[in-house]
Amino acid sequence: MYASQELDLFLEARHWKAYWRSTIRPFVGGDVLEVGAGIGANTTVLADLSYRKWVCLEPDAALAARITLPTPRHELTVGTTDTIGEGRRFDAILYLDVLEHIEDDWGEMLRAAGLLKPGGRLVVLAPAHMFLYSPFDREIGHFRRYSRASLRSIAPPGMEIRKLVYLDSCGALASFCNRLLLRSPMPTSRQLWTWDHFMVPCSRLLDPLLLHRAGKSVLGIWSRNEPGAGR
User: Fold this and answer.
1) The whole model's pTM is what?
2) Distance between CA atoms of 145 and 30, rounded to whole angstroms?
3) pLDDT on residue 2
4) Total domain count for the chain?
């Protein structure tokens, strides 16, 4: 589904992970399914949130073997949303930099919606803007980048939007400059360190002032309507 190179490269992006973690925190709880858990980096970042059970779902057995489950409430399943046990439902399903790796994103979102309990939340964090699509995206298996409009367009029926925003406006500017001027096929560790330690903290201050209308990533959060809602 995606290259382990990307997962290792962003392993130390602590400021960035802290930023989106604080944004999704109110929507994560109960029984949680993390789709595309990779090597467990995001699992660890979110391990101290409030939840009942956490399922790490990873289709690549080699990546899954690198996951260290942080608590007894975590479990590991090697597979996809197609292989989740019949009748199992979740309060929150997370796609953290994963949906862009899935060719049939519409079908994937439909399956995820079907795995949600009534009132359950679907959380998608993905790279933003096709004009920023680069050789690096192609190298690590990204089929696309998203805008708010394109992410909204694949929301399954019966889902109510809770949040749809861009994050990391400073990172977007840096990515655009790299795309236009440097044309680096892959960010260096020094570039990533500079982005994470300087640009991300600036984005946390600037993004609210820009009303989250610009950013390198897009975050969409939906909730599944309760039965009979809207009647």
Assistant:
1) 0.93
2) 30
3) 46
4) 1
In 3-state terms, what secondary structure has residue 178? helix
Range of the domain at 158: 4-224
Place of tokens 């975050």: 219
Distance CA 35, CA 98 (A): 7
Query: If you ran DSSP here, which 8-state letter would residue 79 be given?
Result: S
CA dihedral 143, 147, 149, 153 (to 10 degrees): 20
CA gap 163, 220 in Å, rounded: 6
pLDDT of residue 16: 96
User: Which one, of 142, 5, 124, 4, lies nearest residue 61 by Cα?
Assistant: 4
Residue (of 28, 38, 70, 77) closest to 55 by Cα position = 77
What separation in angstroms does the CA of 188 have from each of 14, 50, 178, 185? Answer: 16, 35, 12, 10
Instruction: Return d(Cα 181, Cα 175) in angstroms, integer.
Output: 10
CATH code for the domain of 28: 3.40.50.150
User: Among candidates 216, 204, 222, which has minimal Cα distance to 127?
Assistant: 216
Q: How far apart are CA 200 and CA 89, in angstroms?
A: 35
Q: How far apart are the first and last CA of the chain?
A: 40
230 lies in a domain? no
Q: Which residues of the chain have pLDDT under 70?
A: 1-6, 178-186, 227-231
- The two structure tokens encoding residue 169: 């406006």
Structure tokens at 49: 């949130």
